UniProtKB/TrEMBL annotation:
<keyword id="KW-0690">Ribosome biogenesis</keyword>
<feature type="binding site">
    <location>
        <position position="21"/>
    </location>
    <ligand>
        <name>ATP</name>
    </ligand>
</feature>
<keyword id="KW-0539">Nucleus</keyword>
<feature type="binding site">
    <location>
        <position position="18"/>
    </location>
    <ligand>
        <name>ATP</name>
    </ligand>
</feature>
<feature type="region of interest" description="LID">
    <location>
        <begin position="113"/>
        <end position="123"/>
    </location>
</feature>
<comment type="similarity">
    <text>Belongs to the adenylate kinase family. AK6 subfamily.</text>
</comment>
<comment type="subunit">
    <text>Monomer and homodimer. Interacts with small ribosomal subunit protein uS11. Not a structural component of 43S pre-ribosomes, but transiently interacts with them by binding to uS11.</text>
</comment>
<dbReference type="Pfam" id="PF13238">
    <property type="entry name" value="AAA_18"/>
</dbReference>
<feature type="binding site">
    <location>
        <position position="23"/>
    </location>
    <ligand>
        <name>ATP</name>
    </ligand>
</feature>
<feature type="region of interest" description="NMPbind">
    <location>
        <begin position="38"/>
        <end position="61"/>
    </location>
</feature>
<feature type="binding site">
    <location>
        <position position="20"/>
    </location>
    <ligand>
        <name>ATP</name>
    </ligand>
</feature>
<keyword id="KW-0418">Kinase</keyword>
<dbReference type="GO" id="GO:0004017">
    <property type="term" value="F:AMP kinase activity"/>
</dbReference>
<dbReference type="GO" id="GO:0006364">
    <property type="term" value="P:rRNA processing"/>
</dbReference>
<dbReference type="GO" id="GO:0005737">
    <property type="term" value="C:cytoplasm"/>
</dbReference>
<keyword id="KW-0547">Nucleotide-binding</keyword>
<feature type="binding site">
    <location>
        <position position="114"/>
    </location>
    <ligand>
        <name>ATP</name>
    </ligand>
</feature>
Length: 176
């Protein structure tokens, strides 16, 4: 199936919970007016949640149902998708994938402040230490569209937003 050209790029902002994805997405949304697709909120809105995982204290996403719902949303472009995972999304959906990373000590403090504890806290810290979500993105998308961004400080957060805005402008120059 041939892809119709998009008027604006679709970007994925991914990374371990607590790295600052939603904060970056909120600022990008305000600056670009692109549609901010918070997958967790879409999953609730469109009833794409299956059983509850008692070990992690959260519901389990029904990937197939979520993808079916998002397919038409992604066609025209101009989407900022905000989710901790990346491997189940179709490669064709994204023009840019930005993996947000954070120092483990900072991440630990952020997750504890959110109420994470036990296995959920430990597993998310391990996920960041072992670069699981970076590797997932690198294995799921072409290397030239995946970028890793450090997000430890307010200065880095603002610089990351500028980096993504500049990337969007470059994409438009090259594709429109």
């Amino acid at each position: 199936m041939e892809r119709r050209p998009r008027f604006a790029p679709n970007i994925l902002i991914t990374g371990t919970p607590g790295v600052g994805k939603s904060t970056i997405c909120k600022i990008l949304y305000e600056r670009t007016k692109y549609t901010w697709r918070e997958v967790s909120k879409l999953a609730e809105e469109f009833n794409c949640l299956d059983e509850y995982d008692p070990e992690y204290h959260c519901p389990v996403l029904n990937d197939d149902k979520m993808l079916d719902i998002m397919e038409s949303m992604m066609e025209k472009g101009g989407n900022i998708v905000d989710y901790h995972g990346s491997e189940f999304f179709p490669e064709r959906w994204f023009d840019g994938v930005f993996v947000i990373r954070t120092n483990n000590t900072i991440l630990y403090d952020r997750l504890v402040a959110r109420g994470y504890s036990g296995k959920k806290l430990e597993d998310n810290i391990q996920c960041e230490i072992f670069e699981v979500l970076l590797e997932e993105a690198q294995n799921s998308y072409k290397a030239d569209i995946v970028r890793e961004l450090q997000n430890n400080t307010q200065e880095q957060l603002l610089a990351n937003v500028e980096t993504i805005i500049e990337w969007i402008e470059k994409w438009k120059e090259d594709n429109l």
